[in-house]
Amino acid sequence: MARSIKIAVGGLELRGMLLDTPTAEAIWAALPIKQRVGVWGGEFYFPSGVSLAEEAGATERMEVGALAYWPPGQSFCIFFGPTPASRGSEPRMADPGNVFGKLTSVPVAELSKIRSGAEIVIERVEE
Description:
Elements: E1 3-9, E2 12-18, H1 22-30, E3 33-36, E4 38-39, E5 43-47, E6 59-61, E7 66-70, E8 75-79, E9 92-103, H2 108-111, E10 119-125
Antiparallel strand pairs: 1-2, 1-10, 2-9, 3-10, 4-5, 5-8, 6-9, 7-8, 7-9
């Protein structure tokens, strides 16, 4: 079953699709999430409300638009560009994390304007 989410942040409304993974299941069960974002280069991160371990295949390497879980910080992360840990233009986590979904579109210029402390709300899209 495809699971869609709606992400509201900084006056933007984004859509994402979740994968079929244990992390995606846990995040889906925790929705809705309402938090304040931290910004780390081209990454938003915020408390997820879940505590999970690294899955097989956990990686530091991310793609633009990746939705991932960072186990050390129990954080939901959204990638839209390079981070301080990047090598070149590739988004990169500080430690391995679990990719659990992807944004359907990534308005990089608009996302880059959002600052730490902005409210983010993530909800299920019931189909």
